[in-house]
Amino acid sequence: MLERFYPDAEAENAYGIDYGELYGRGFRGIIFDIDNTLVPHGAPADERAGRLFAGLREMGFETLLLSNNKEPRVKSFAEKVGAKYIYKAGKPGRAGYEKAMELMKTGPGSTLFVGDQLFTDVWGARRVGILSYLVKPIHPKEEIQIVLKRRLERIVLFFYHRRKRNGA
Fold first, then answer.
1. Quick check: pTM over 0.85?
2. Is-contact 121 89, C-beta < 8 A?
3. Angle between helices 71-81 and 47-59 (to 10 degrees)
4. pLDDT, greater one: 99 or 149
5. Which residues, other chains included, contact 135 with Cβ-Cβ below 8 Å and sequence gap of 6+?
6. Pairing state of beta strands 84-86 and 111-115?
7. What sign does the dihedral 112-86-103-93 (CA atoms) show?
């Protein structure tokens, strides 16, 4: 039952993933969460995020920001990094992920998702069959509902890491 929340891969942060290797494996679209994945919660796009997205475009990737936030937050970030976006995405519902692939003209086998939350980001990606990367939250300051979810995530991650250690 917990397996539905397990990421396909983990990374320290979104900036340390080997996107070139993923491109070589046939991935062409990347869906990103914003808050605590690319920048601290509520922070604007910074130079680091801009460089990441420019490099991904140069490699040949389509990129899209998928967020449950309102449009002003997502649109301003997307404009600064040059990505497509979907706001009020309803993660972990399937519709936002499916719309993202439609906008990027990719499918489940050529799309990956990068986010910091198991119960929205990872679960949603798994529901539509796309590769999911879980990254560590950038900043510990979060809204109370996320703090509560993080406690549950620790339980799921305990079993996930135990399973990985045992070679399953």
1. yes
2. no
3. 60
4. 99
5. 10, 11, 12, 13, 14, 17, 37, 114, 115, 116
6. unpaired
7. positive
